[in-house]
Amino acid sequence: MGVLTQSLAVDCAPDGTPARLEWNGRQYTIVARPLRWFQRRRWWAEEMRAAKGAGVGLVDHEVWRLQVRLARAGHGAPVQTIDLVHHRDSGRWRLDQVHGHVREAAPTRQSVGAAA
C-alpha cells in the first residue's frame, strides 16, 4: 500500500461517477461499483485565509475508491484498489492511495441479484 499525490485523467458518467481513467499513460477500466465519501481536510494547516465566497472543498474533499484493471490486459489482469481525490473547484483528480492487488472485483448489486 502506498500514499501518492499524482494527477490523473478521469472520464465520468453523466451522474459524476468515474467511468474510465488514465494513469501513467495507461488506460484503466473500472470493474466494480465505485464508492464515494467525503473526508475532512487539514484546512487549518493548509489555508491561512479563505477567499471571500470560497467554501466548496475548503473543509471536505470528495474521495472515490475504485477497483480497476489495465484496459488492454483483459479479464485475466489483476485488479487494483485505488483511492482518488476529486478537487471540485478545479475539476482535477489526484491519485491518493494504491491498495494491494485483489484477485477479482467485488460484485456489484446487479451481479449479486443476477446470481440469486
Folded structure, characterized:
This protein is mostly beta strands. The chain has helices at 43-46, 109-115, and strands at residues 2-12, 18-23, 26-30, 35-40, 60-70, 79-86, 93-102. The chain has one domain. It contains two helices and seven strands; from the N terminus they run ββββαβββα. The longest helix is centred in the last third of the chain and has 7 residues, at 109-115. The radius of gyration is 16 Å and the shape is elongated.
Sheet with most strands: 6 strands, antiparallel, barrel
Number of helices: 2
Our measurement of the CA-to-CA distance between the termini, rounded to an integer number of angstroms, reads: 34 Å
Q: In the residues, how many domains can be counted?
A: 1
Task: Give a short overview.
The chain is mainly beta.
Question: Which features would summarize this protein structure in a list?
Answer:
116 residues, mainly beta, six-stranded antiparallel barrel, 2 helices, 7 strands, 9% helix, elongated
SSE topology sketch:
Layout: E1 2-12, E2 18-23, E3 26-30, E4 35-40, H1 43-46, E5 60-70, E6 79-86, E7 93-102, H2 109-115
Antiparallel strand pairs: 1-2, 1-7, 2-3, 3-5, 4-5, 5-6, 6-7
